[in-house]
Specification:
This protein has about 400 residues and is α/β, with parallel strands linked by helices. It is built from eleven helices and 19 strands. Strands 5-6-4-14-15-16-13-17 form an eight-stranded mixed beta sheet. Helix 1 crosses helix 9. The protein binds flavin-adenine dinucleotide. The site of flavin-adenine dinucleotide has 41 residues, from helix 1, strand 13 and strand 17. Flavin-adenine dinucleotide (FAD) binds next to helix 1, strand 13 and strand 17.
Length: about 400
């Protein structure tokens, strides 16, 4: 799929992180003819959150900035198998967020209206329509928090995360761009004019004028090496899958009130996720607390799953910004240091658009309009984006 290389003493661009973001940036740089590029990762390809996520793709966000950006990414995902000549198994089965309170219904209505104004297929649906869409879901008044309405987003769905990572990696390799797994970045040297000068790694030092930080859960540690503090805190996020069942669930189901989301894979396993762990940490262990909460909340929605066995459970790291929106672009403090971080619990779906736009930024030197709202400077300028209502659990 991709070749091993000796590390060269210099590259035009060094990308730190070989997850979906780092590899997508490299791929779209290659398409622009920029190929003296190295993608470095301290571990194996996709060993970060890109290989641990639940792969929900959607664009029904809350802010106009978020909706426009994620819509671009969904459209790139729709063409990705063809683009990479690799089956990424994108299943646009529809995404349904249910509300159990009047306030929850109002938030979904706001989102539906913003989505539709921007051309995204998304609408409020009644309990009757939900019952038809998802026969296994308990829409009765028996649960302690009955369902009142839902936000239905037909283009949303799930994808095969490994295939996306491997497809981009194969594309990058064919362009002549080098991928260096097991190459840890331990320092970044900045010259007296505050420009990026060198990247120090476990396999040697590289001279470069452009470095991209695409390290998600570890992004604050890399920023720190360049003397930049990020308003980001890293939290673990867990998920689990059950044993295989006959197909019974044909949509992604989310409940923000119950802090749970559920879908069924092509193999029949039920994938269940929740919100982030309640404490910041770099530990990727699984906890009983998560499994108990996930099971209890799932059974509120799907009592039919009561006897189903859990097959496996895992965790990944999430780089949480205060407004649940990413940090993308250049910074004033250090010339040549570019961020593609702040992807929290929701960044896998953003890989193609972020990759495409960061590559454009590097190639042209200009920040594309669609990523302008995500500049780090928004925090200093008191202009956070407020995406929490659409990103906290809905991933
Ligand atoms: C359980 C779970 C479920 C999720 N579900 C969804 C979902 O359904 N939909 C969605 O859109 N998003 C989801 N996410 C979030 C999503 O997975 C991430 O936002 C996304 O994968 C981030 O991709 P990335 O390429 O930026 O980072 P990563 O894939 O984390 O890659 C970063 C890489 O940087 C490397 N690195 C770190 N430090 C160094 C260093 N010093 N030197 C070299 N390399 C380094 C790491 O080894 C890692 O491979 C979920 C996350 C988790 C954990």
């Amino acid at each position: 799929m991709w070749h091993r290389h000796n590390l060269k003493p210099a590259y035009d661009v060094v990308i730190i992180g070989a997850g979906v973001h780092g590899l997508a940036i490299a791929y779209y740089l290659g398409k622009r003819g920029i190929t003296r590029v190295a993608v470095l990762d301290k571990g194996y390809l996709g060993g970060g959150a890109s290989g641990r996520n639940t792969a929900i793709i959607r664009s029904n966000y809350r802010t106009p900035q978020g909706v426009a950006f994620y819509d671009e990414s969904v459209k790139l995902y729709e063409r990705l198998a063809l683009e990479l000549d690799y089956n990424v198994m994108f299943s646009q089965q529809g995404h349904l967020t249910v509300a159990h309170t009047d306030r929850g219904v109002t938030t979904l209505r706001e989102r539906a209206e913003t989505n539709r104004l921007l051309g995204v297929d998304s609408r409020l649906v009644s309990v009757e329509e939900i019952a038809e869409l998802v026969p296994g879901l308990d829409v009765s008044t028996k649960p302690h928090q009955p369902i009142l309405a839902g936000l239905y987003h037909p283009p949303g769905g799930i994808i095969r995360h490994d295939a996306v990572v491997w497809g981009y990696a194969r594309g990058v390799d064919r362009q002549g761009i080098e991928i260096h797994p097991f190459t840890e970045v331990t320092g970044i040297r900045i010259d007296s004019a505050r420009r990026v000068e060198e990247v120090i790694t476990s396999r040697g030092t590289i001279a470069t004028r452009t470095v991209v930080n695409a390290t998600a859960g570890w992004c604050s540690t890399i920023a720190h090496m360049a003397g930049i503090e990020l308003p980001i805190v890293t939290y673990p996020l867990q998920a689990l899958v059950t044993e295989r069942l006959k197909p019974f669930l044909h949509h992604v189901i989310v409940s923000a009130t119950l802090h749970v989301y559920i879908n069924q894979t092509d193999r029949g396993e039920v994938v269940i996720g929740e919100e982030i762990d309640p404490y910041p940490s770099y530990h990727m262990g699984s906890t009983l607390r998560f499994m108990e909460n996930a099971a209890a909340h799932t059974l509120e929605l799907f009592p039919c799953l009561a006897q189903v066995k859990v097959l496996r459970q895992w965790a990944g790291l999430c780089d949480m910004p205060p407004d649940f929106a990413p940090i993308i672009g250049t910074v004033d403090e250090v010339e040549g240091f570019i961020f593609d971080v702040g992807w929290g619990t929701y960044g896998f779906k953003a890989g193609p658009a972020a990759g495409y736009r960061v590559a454009e930024l590097i190639a042209t030197g200009k920040t594309p309009a669609v990523i302008e709202p995500f500049a780090l400077s928004r925090f200093a300028n008191l202009q956070p984006l407020g995406e929490k209502a659409a990103a906290a659990v809905s991933h």
